[in-house]
Design a protein that fits this description.
- The protein is α+β, with helices and mostly antiparallel strands and 363 residues long.
- It is built from 10 helices and 12 strands.
- Strands 1, 2, 3, 4, 5, 6, 7 and 12 form an 8-stranded mixed β-sheet that branches. It has a 4-stranded antiparallel β-sheet with strand order 9-10-8-11.
- Helix 1 crosses helix 3 and helix 2 crosses helix 3.
- The longest helix has 21 residues.
- It is globular.
Amino acid sequence: MKKITSLAPGRTCLFGDHQDYLGLPVIACAIDRNIKLIAKQNQTETFVLNMIDINEIRIIDIHEAFEKLESRDYFASSLRVLRRYGCKPTSGYTITITGDIPINSGTSSSSALLMAWIRFLIEAFGIDHEVTPEFLSKLGYESEVLEHGEPGGMMDHFSIGVGNIVYINTKKPFSFDVIGTELKGLITGVSGVPKETIGLLGELKGNALMAIDLVKQNYPQFDLNTSEIEDLDKYRNCLPDRLIPFFEAAVKNYHYTKEALKEFEKPVLDLKKIGFLMNGHHEVLRDLLKITVPRIDAMINAALKAGAYGAKIVGSGGGGSIVVIADPKNEDAVIKAILDAGAQEAYAVNVDPGVRIIDNIEN
């Protein structure tokens, strides 16, 4: 009998939150908190999924076609997508799922689970395609976003599928580059306030696109991908007051991501400079998009006061987690300060190499 163990990391967004749905680039990295899926072949024609951390068991018939999808049922949507690529389950498995990625905190626990599941299915049953990090990432995006018609982007799937520190160019034609494999002094702080993803994303995306559209009507040559902060004054005057912050945020966030990319391309990373840019990016998310909550603000202020170089909220907002860059020698003091400010958890993280099979044993 086969035993397969699949592992997928969480991810954190370093630069580019609320950018991927505008076709703007993102810098993200996989972090060494993960979802582990241990699958043992069984004598039935079912997948028995034991989700230990949430105390749930789910049983799926391996032949189930899932003509109709339930909202956010990624186990089902990925089976549907994988069948199209010739990955067809032929035997049952009893699967134990555990993880140490905080749930609903903006570090992509749901995408990590999906990617570990997809990687297991391909390992167990094969697929009509070369299995590359890029291909795995695309399968994740198809299964989570396209199949369900959700407003998310590709950042989560490519961070987890490709691993490392990755620069993701989200505009068509989509591309990505691994720009680093290590980032010292990286800390995650989890607020314990559940984030509010779908509604918030939809609203912010709608307002940003509306603002960009209005600017284009007045300035047909305007292109967000070549926009500069200096141009903001020129374009503001054609926007109603309520849309100005969304437009300004798009241009400024993009600026910080471009500047950060220049830093990551240098042979030696200047953590202070990266931290400085991170702080600028966070101010946009806090003051213009207003996606922070009091506990996140308190955690960030405490981290900076304790000597961190930079800190920002991660992901869609309304709660969730923060990412912090600190001097590695000062990590403990910064972690303590974040916890004292009310964080549920705070810990140092390392950059992770991405989704992978760590065991495939025939008994």
